[in-house]
Amino acid sequence: MSEALDDQWVVRGDHDEYATILFNEVMPDGYALNHPRHTLLLKTTQSLIVASREGPFAFTQSPKVLARVARSIIGFGAWCNMENIERFENVTPDDIARFVSLAATGYERTMQTVRRIQDATDALRSAVGVPVPLALALQHAGIPSNLRSKIPRALEAYYHMNYPLALETVSARTETKQTLTKGTLYQKFFPLDMLWQCRKSISSALVFEPFPAGVWSVAESLGKDNGHTKTMPVNVCFHILAAAVNWVTLGNALLRLMHETSRDPSKAEEACLQFSKRHANELCGVSLSTRKLGSPYIVHPKTACITYLPTAVYIIIAAFTARRDIEISKLSAGSVTGNSESGWWLKSYIAKTLRRDDFTPCPEIVKAAVCLMEKIGREVRQEHAISLLFVVPGDANNCSYRRCAIDINLFARLVQTPKVMIEEILTDWKFSPHQFRRAFAVLFVWRFEYANIGALSYQLRHFNIDMTLNYVRDAELSSLIGEEYHKLTLEKMRSYANGPEKPCGIFGNVLKKFIQRFRNTISMTDEAGLERKLVEFVEQRKLRLRATPWGYCGASGTPSNLRRAACQSVINPSRGITLDGVPDSTGSDEYLCARCHFHVTDSTREDHWVAKQKSMEQAARNAYTSELLRRAQMERSRVIRIFIQKNFNKE
DNA sequence: GCCTACGAGCTCTACATGTC
DNA sequence: GACATGTAGAGCTCGTAGGC
């Protein structure tokens, strides 16, 4: 911890982390916290920060957490000051009850900002006239000016008193303040408990235990449940991923353009024009220019390279490795190792669970993205002997390097990510880094159909698999996956009805007959009629085709389907049911599906079947294969061979 | 259930950059 | 050179993921 300054402490932690705690906040009486009249509160706050970090009541080393403790104590001190309570010793249980119930409704009501700003405006009117400057009114009311976004009602009152005609324009700012979440309240109330626990080592303390039933029980009774990270709509997710991949693919060319244009400014504009024309598709609707032309979709090549390219790299890493924001931000240059044959591995710090570096498997695009970022910041890293990946050259006159400003929403707007309908308003989707971690889980679960949650749990580095299941049990996700299954089923049915693919397998033949029946009942030229019949068929039967490498499973979760599905036979030790109650395809294989009532396949899987049959035959012929296993493989190979002959007309 | 450690979103300030 | 605009980085309150 640094030495005490007049108005702030700089609290340092591990890994160069630090937090600044300001002690010059204006109190409701108009005097700053570090004014001599607030010495007691200041000393108590400082003592509690020390006690939180050292000694018997220490619970954290994190500078940010210590800063939060300070904020809570100062906040409570400000409320006491407003209530004319000079020492914490004078606080009564009733005061605590009043404070916590007010605190649950947010800053504005707790600190009675409406009344205070009205009083301040009244008092200042005679001295400065109307309108009273807002900054002056806030200062006189003892409300920190940076909290303006938290006091919409107080602002409305201020504007009403000073600019009556402008009221309509500001009334939109008012909204009912919802109760804060349990977690937030817990963090607000916990430091109050310390005013009792640490009573022997602080200047001013509570004389009773404020939360005998526990801090959490109070927070729980007053707060609302926490929310969760939203799931990106599929089209939005795929659009921004495609854009990020395109930008990363174009990255080296963009860097060359930036260097060319900076070397020869006279040709810069022409070079940008030509580049934009040549790479119109990859740039996803963005044009490059060295001049400011007013369009949000025109950017300077330097901005493209040091702002948008790092963001594209960030998105690629987040989406394809499921790493958290903090884990990506801390990546070092050279963090991807491996090769195209044995695979690529991203070395990153694993926050929350392991809390150490670990390797995560990743696709080649991640390796390309990291290499690109290494190139962007190479000179900076060499010059300053740092390893951080996400750094770019800083401002020439001020700092020589800086961390990349990753702004996913800015990038999304630039590449014109589709808008979404939220509460009947077409609006931009609001991205957050954690949504890509969630998107990874969505894509994994959808692609592998709930298979191997253990693998997903490892990728997310959860200690507890229940945490992973929280992702895949989520109602929003289930509905999303259900929707995708529905789309896939309809697409396959259309494809089977209109060609060129023909369904085969036992269930495939059933589908073929239904499609033929539809064709017989409608005019051959009535494609709309056929489409209608297909949709009705899929919806009425609740048909959901789920993909496997060798075809599709059409079994539902009804008792009769489960009884008849080949993979659910009691002699199959690998049988299993997915979380939505249908047969788990990971407990099945080609041999079982070849004779199953619910299996569909088509020519897109033909190569797979042929290769499988060959590999089984070779394995059976292997001299080292035991006799028992050889016989089993020969039998399996025979069944698959017959399936191929019957369905793909091959000998 | 309880708790920690972060992130999101907002505003403000200082400074850089662009435009006329 | 004056002014407008853009942007990084700070602080704040409130929200969220996830460990045990």
From TrEMBL:
InterPro entries: DNA_brk_join_enz (IPR011010), Integrase-like_cat_sf (IPR013762). GO terms for molecular function: DNA binding. Keywords: DNA recombination. This is Uncharacterized protein. It comes from the Bacteria. GO terms for biological process: DNA integration; DNA recombination. It comes from Pseudoduganella umbonata.
